[in-house]
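INFO worker-7 received task bundle
INFO bundle size: 2
INFO processing item 0
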Amino acid sequence: MAEYDVIADQEGTSAAAAALAAGHGPVAVDVERASGFRYSQRAYLIQVFRRGAGVFLFDPPAIGDLSPLQQAIGEEEWVLHAASQDLPSLREDGLEPPRIFDTELASRLLGHDRVGLGAVVEHTLGITLAKAHSAADWSTRPLPQSWLEYAALDVLHLVDVRDALVAELEEQDKSALAAEEFEAVRTRAPKPAREEPWRRLSGLHSVRGRRSLAIARALWTAREELAQQEDVSPGRLVPDRSLVAAVAANPATKSDLARVKEFTGRASRSQLDRWWAAIEAGRADPALPSERGSGDGMPPPRAWADRNAPADARLKAARPAVEAVAAELNMPTENLLTPDTLRRVAWNPPAEITPETVGAALAEWGARPWQIARTAQVITAAFVESVNAATDGDEPAS
């Protein structure tokens, strides 16, 4: 087992940055967070590898300023696996790639059946990686040596994987479309905050009545505030099912709440005053939430036949057509065109159905040029076919 040290100060960061700057070729980067343990999604370990330099493990909370690292690698291509997961955490620490190669996304575009890091490394290099610590609490200090070895292996082979996938992309004539996808991931704006994030509460569907929903909202908000304050994952304080159980129990007093056996979690009793205050606030809140979330005006497809029959016909005609194109390209349909994009254009199509207007509608919902080039024509044909089929069905038999 190789021994790895964690860089935790400015002196070590500057030395590592100098070594990385003297290396050559793309830079492999990975991030370890403490999801499920901490409230934040910050990086608790950043791993970097470059040929001619080696592997370096950085402790961002201890270092603070990572600008020497950014200066050392900020002009190079960064190789990441599932980049969309790591880029927000990297940016929080001031690390921004000028261009990326995403090994997970490349594997999807190539039609690989399994796209986890271990599977991709095994497919391309024939090397088996142990994934024993993928769900570990990376905010732990000191980090065990076995964890550090695992973390180092996540980047040690990544540049070799990139080279193998580059060759596969060239063989399948997908280099250009892959570059579009990588850039789309790199430049994608963060999702806007949900208007009613408390509606993500697992089990909320069982809560009936606007007043009960107001109580659930107040409990969720109280837990969120405590979780953020203590930097602890909300579910580790009080699980979702416990908050819903408290709403269902409808306790008359704080003591009654304490006797709800389903109300569990490490903060369920130590913060009892907080939860009772939330219940009382929910009961007194004059701004009652609606029974259903605000949504975006587009119902689930199962309801389309009754709500918007032409849209239902368009979607049912276009979906298999897009799937057929994806099969020809040997990639998952969702990588050719996201289901949400197709649904939105089918629900609210342009007034005149042509490849150009459909392409413009697809672009409005974020489709890339290569996706539009391969789908606009078949979607147009499917939409027109759905209209013709409906017209034929309305004609009386002669």
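INFO item 0 finished
INFO processing item 1
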Amino acid sequence: MRVTVLGGGVIGLSTAWYAARAGHAVELVDRGSPHGGSWVAGGMLAPITEAWPGDEDVLALGVESLELWPEFARSLGVELSPAGTLAVAVDRADVEVLGQLCAYLGRMGRSASRLTGRELRALEPGLGQVRSGLSVPGDVAVDNRALLRALREACAADGVVFAAEPAAEPDVTVIAAGAWSRDLHPLLRDVIRPVKGEILRLSARPGALPPPRHTIRAHVSGRPVYLVPREGGFVLGATQYEAGFDGDATVGGVRDLLRDAEVVWPGIAEYAIAEVAAGFRAGSPDNAPVIKWLEPGVLAATGHHRNGLLLAPVTARRVLALLREGGNSR
């Protein structure tokens, strides 16, 4: 079939690549945006740490996708960071939140080990005065921008045609444009919404403590903050607002991130700010992605919220199955 994929983020690229490898003629239409959720992302592949009561379907889908990631990464020549996640709490209320998460994970049969503040600092000496935390060994991380580059190269190698506007009439259109998907079909208008997030990229200056080995996810006075290691620094995020398509990174958002991160990792004060950016996640009413036929010839693969990178391989595989279903019904 002739397949046009609308959207050049991780979901669109992964879908285009899988479809091309399956023998379809694929065109990927990407107008580009500096605020795309895949570009402005931390790179955490963390279904366990992201889990919360009521999101069981999202957890199950995330775990399914995480199992696909080692082969997905190998095929693309992308490295995964296997150190795992440390979820840490600073005050008593934050300790209670982590306790709820730990109890929930136990009920779901998932692994997470309770650690004292001293045990956490033995693993990551750069941590501040955290009270306690969880070790979540199954979570991994990926350099999101290296992943996007690798996916574009893989798509090109397998014959995907890139365009700014559709050049031909397809048999199937796949809407995978993240938060912008809401404007591409009437059935998505009231389902998909932009969820703004701000993120910082920090680089170590001479004499600064090295970045953590683990991904650090923290609650500081109820506010979430994460530090994801990168070569020579780390990614710091992420605020979350219902602010429409407001692409400005605000002083208040950046201030909150830096303030909270310094509580968790005091050595951050010696780092340089390499980048400040705001991006848009594709929110959905139940935090689960929309992967289905909208009408004959039109598929949706959007609404991944915080889990676009994590869910890329399982989404691409499900879209490919829907394409086969559609082809068999023709």
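INFO item 1 finished
INFO post-check item 1: Residues 56-76 form the longest helix (21 residues).
INFO post-check item 1: The chain is about 30% helix and 30% strand.
INFO worker-7 idle
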